[in-house]
Amino acid sequence: LQENIAKAEGYLARFKENTLGHFINGEWTLGSGETFDNTTPLDQSYLGKVAAASVEDVNAACEAAAAAAAGWAATPGAERRKILHRLGDELEKRAEEIAMVESMDCGQALRFMRQAAVRGAANFRFFADQAPEARNGLSLHQAEHTNFTVRSPLGPVAVITPWNTPFMLSTWKIAPALASGCTVVHKPAELSPLTASILAECADAAGLPKGVWNMVNGFGAVAGKALTEHPAIKAVALVGDSATGKMIQAQTAQTLKRLHLELGGKNPVIVFDDADFERALDATVFMIYSLNGQRCTSSSRLLIQSGIKDKFLAALKERVANIKVGHPLDPETEVGPLVHTGHYDKVTSYFEIAKQDGATIAVGGKSLRDEMGPGNYVTPTLFVDAKNDMRIAQEEIFGPVLTAIEFDTEEEAIKLANETVYGLAGYIWTSNTGRAMRMAHAVEAGMLWVNSENNRNLPSPFGGVKMSGIGRDGGDWSFDFYMETKNVCIAH
Ligand code: NAD
């Protein structure tokens, strides 16, 4: 741990000493000069000043992206592929730095963040390889006509990202946008801005032309709003809260932009009596307590069948009570501090709400500030005796907090799974294949995993239904979002 802390301090020194600016038209700038302080959730200590973009700063970034759009769109796909692979190389070179800075900025344990840069690089490489063919569409033949489609990049697009796993999620959006031939203005979350600047540095080092990649720091209500309202921006890809998705839908209405919204969730993990007990238990623990539970696809509602309920909950309690909470750079740590004091207040408020609603706190339900100092540490928590209409079963808590609800029949499981405004992900554990298929069809979610924890396959579609979002990422779904399709019909 001490060695990791010393290394991280080395990486963080430049952020503490210099105000972190915006990257606009290939230059670092402090813009209008407004700033805000960035702190670490570890102990609320100072991580440096960050420039807060004004509307003028955002306009400058959008204009740079607009000026660079035609040149980047005309750059051959093979050339874009080469540059994006070089960007992957840059990310891999700086993998340790990215992981440590990310852990210190957002509190997520290093053991998970170690994968961030590697996965980020893989995202760029995957979409880079498809850049040369991305324009090609379909040929549709009729007796007297032939239709064919071609695709072209939309132009400048906005990418707005959240504070949870901010690095990886940014690459996931920006990689297909650039591979499609779009230029980008990225606005990272104000609560964890550091690794987005490393990403922009790597893009610059990889040789992306000026104006193709722009990054503005700042707040949603000013910088984010201005970005979504700018007429040059053709599409907005947001990863964030459902409430933010609604605001952006309203903000973009006047300029009629294309939207891709990846929003919140209250995802069920449904464990039937005939499930593989140990694997279901491992996956249940992993999918809510890894990444501090600050994960959109976390399995935050456990629906447990009555036949194994007692045995499963007893084993679960033991596992949850033994989760190691600690310094995010400690290799042993599984759960680190929550991202921000505001979020800590939100998560801890549910400990009281659970009691008021009549649920039982089986494990945790406590702040760890008395024991661990001023960081945003909470105990991994398990609520039992819960009903699906309780707030702890309906609201996205976004912390290491699991709500367990009992069910008897398959029909009841489907009903409980679907009685939520969200529909991002679901997890089904059963050894009955027919039941797995029925559940997969019946559960309202964009993504379902059967007898598996969350496993991301880049060519597969990723996204939610209901209040969890609009649109899909991954494979050709991403190209379809960042490109316009034109149909040409030729008479024979
Ligand atoms: P948030 O919605 O508060 O912020 C996300 C981004 O939107 C930030 O950059 C913020 O500055 C910006 N923003 C806020 N208001 C804006 C506005 N009016 N106009 C433009 N931009 C605005 O979300 P958060 O708290 O940073 O992240 C957590 C949320 O993200 C959770 O709800 C989580 O489920 C969700 N999330 C979803 C996915 C997914 O793939 N579905 C993935 C990760 C996180």
Automatic annotation (TrEMBL):
Active site: 262
GO biological process: 4-hydroxyphenylacetate catabolic process
Organism field: Amphritea opalescens
Domain Aldehyde dehydrogenase span(s) in chain numbering: 28-488
PANTHER family: 2-AMINOMUCONIC SEMIALDEHYDE DEHYDROGENASE (PTHR43720)
Gene for this chain: hpaE
Coiled-coil residues: none
High-level lineage: Bacteria, Pseudomonadati, Pseudomonadota, Gammaproteobacteria, Oceanospirillales
The name this protein goes by in its record: 5-carboxymethyl-2-hydroxymuconate semialdehyde dehydrogenase
Family classification: Belongs to the aldehyde dehydrogenase family.
Stored InterPro entries: Ald_DH/histidinol_DH, Ald_DH_C, Ald_DH_CS_GLU, Ald_DH_N, Aldehyde_DH_dom, DH_HpaE
GO terms of molecular function: 5-carboxymethyl-2-hydroxymuconic-semialdehyde dehydrogenase activity
Oxidoreductase keyword on record: yes
